[in-house]
Amino acid sequence: MNDRRKWALIAGVSAVALGATATVGVVAWADYGTRRDAPSSVVTTADWSGGGERILFRNTAPGQGYGHVASVPLADPTAARAVSGVVCDRLDAGPGVFSCLRSVPGIVPTYTAALYADDGNMLLEWPLAGIPSRTRLSADGAFVATTSFVSGHSYASVGFSTETSLRTAHGEDLGNIEEWTLQVDGEPTTPVDRNYWGITFIDDSSFYATVGMSATGVTYLVRGDIAARTLTTLAQNVECPSLSPDGTRIAFKRVTAGAGPNVHWTPAIYDVATGEVDLLPETRGIDDQIEWLDDDVILYGMPREGAAGDTDIWALTADGSGVPELFIEHAWSPSVVREGDDG
Amino acid sequence: MYISLTNTPEEARGAGDSRRAPRGVRTVSSTVVTLGIVSLLTDISSESVAAILPLYITGMLGLSTIAFGVLDGLYQGVSAFVRIAGGYASDRLDQPKWVAFTGYALAAVARVGLLFAAGFAAITAVVTADRIGKGIRTAPRDALITAASDPRSLGRSFGVHRMLDNIGAALGPLIAFLILLVVPDGFHVVFVASLAFALIGVLVLGLVVPNVRTRSAARATGAGRPRAADRFEWSILWHGRLRRVLSAAGILGLLTIGDGFIYLVLQARSDFAAQWFPLLYVGTNVAFLAFAVPLGRLADRVGRARVFVVGHLGLLAAYVVAALAINDLVATVLCLLFLGAFYAATDGVLAALAAQLTTPQTRGTGIAAAQTVVAISRFVSAAGFGVLWYTIGREPSMIVVAALLAVGIPLAALVLRPLLSMTGQAAA
Question: Do domains B27-217 and B235-427 have the same CATH topology?
Answer without folding.
Answer: yes
